[in-house]
Specification:
By secondary structure, this protein is of the alpha/beta class. It has one domain: Rossmann fold, CATH 3.40.50.880. Helices cover 24% and strands 28% of the residues. The protein contains 6 helices and 12 strands. The protein has a 7-stranded mixed beta sheet with strand order 2-1-3-4-12-11-10. Strands 5-6-9 form a 3-stranded mixed beta sheet. The longest helix has 11 residues. It is globular, with a radius of gyration of 17 Å. The relative contact order is 0.16. It binds glutamine (GLN). The site of glutamine (GLN) has 12 residues, from helix 5.
Amino acid sequence: MAGNGLSRGGRPVTARKGDRPVTARKADREADGPVRVGVLALQGDVREHVEILRKLGVEPVEVRQVEDLMGLSGLIVPGGESTTIGKVLSETGLLDGIRSYFYKGGPVWGTCAGMVLAASATTGGRQPLLGLMNALVERNGFGRQVHSFEADLDVEGFDRPFTGVFIRAPFFEDVGPGVEVLGKVGERIVAAKGENILVTAFHPELTDDVRFHEYFLREVCGI
Ligand code: GLN
């Protein structure tokens, strides 16, 4: 191999558009049948995401084991309890399965607990994380007394504010290169995007506003 001019081993394994699963490519969609988008279904707001996906014309797939990731054009990691979800992810092999899906270019959207799991580190105790995004997350970042609240957010790329429903929500305290901040509450980062990943600290599935689901399908999954 020496002398062929190709750099070997020096490139980071980052997702590029061309690496995405075949079904995510518009041109292949019709030939491959309906577009399938997974919702991690171990715990949390599964049904709400499934219903919205169906409304938007994609086939929802409830993901409970590694095999369910096959052929997906996107994966939603919903809200719930990140410590519980992380534990089941590691017991089922899905922690590595989702990482592998992601590093091959598979699009992921983490909401709330899903945003915690997507981060590379937490400010608190150790817990299993997917570590898909170069970010430091503060769990329950808005204080225990403020269990839930709503806030109108200005979101990068949206023409009018999005009402975020926050329930024991996290925020990103810091993000590394390659992470684009999409929305903040004060100085706290509550929505962000990477090459094939989206995170939101709030719960778009609990509102009638499907713009974040549309955004994920369009901007992250390329559907
Ligand atoms: N605070 C929860 C956690 O850290 C997330 C809450 C939610 O998903 N609504 O897992």
